C-alpha cells in the first residue's frame, strides 16, 4: 500500500468531484453540519496551492484545504475528509498534521483555527496545540461565516448571531504557545457540552 500526502496540484483536479461527494456523504451519514463545497471551489483551492491531498496507490483517500482571513492573520484548516475505503489507517491525523505544518509555512505568525462537531477532529487539534475558544476569538470576517451557509446547522448559527452553534471553536495561537499550558483533551467533557448545546437548541426550536 503506497500512501502519499502532498500539497495538492493540477494533477489532483480529477479528484474534485469525488472530494465533494465524499464530504456530502459524510455529512449525511453523521447527521452533523459540514459546509458543502463545489468541485469548482475545490479546484480553486488546488490551483492556489491551498490544499493537501492523500492518495493510496494513486486513488483519492483524503483531503483538507486552507482558508485565510483578515489579510492572513487568521487561517482555517477546513474540509478534512477521509474516503470510507481508507479509514482506520490514521490518515485524518496525518493529513491534519501536514496541513497544519504547511499553514505555518505559508502564513507565518497566523492564528490557526477551526470549528467542528467531530470529537476525533477535536482530539487531533488538541494534540497539535489548539484550545477550545468562544467564537468571539475567531475571525470576525463575514466571508468566513458565509461559508457556513452550506451547513445544515446554519440557521442555529444565524439565530445565535454567530456567537454559538453546535460546533466547537478551536484556536492555535503561535504567540501564546510557549507561555500557556497545553490543553488536555477530555472526550467526556466535550461530548457532554455538545449534548447540552444540542438539547438547548432543540428545546428552543420546539417552543
From TrEMBL:
PROSITE patterns, per database record: GNAT
GO molecular function terms attached to this record: acyltransferase activity, transferring groups other than amino-acyl groups
Keywords: Transferase
Span of domain N-acetyltransferase: 5-151
InterPro entries: Acyl_CoA_acyltransferase, GNAT_dom
Keyword flag Transferase: yes
Name used for this protein in its record: Acetyltransferase, N-acetylglutamate synthase
Lineage: Bacteria, Pseudomonadati, Bacteroidota, Flavobacteriia, Flavobacteriales
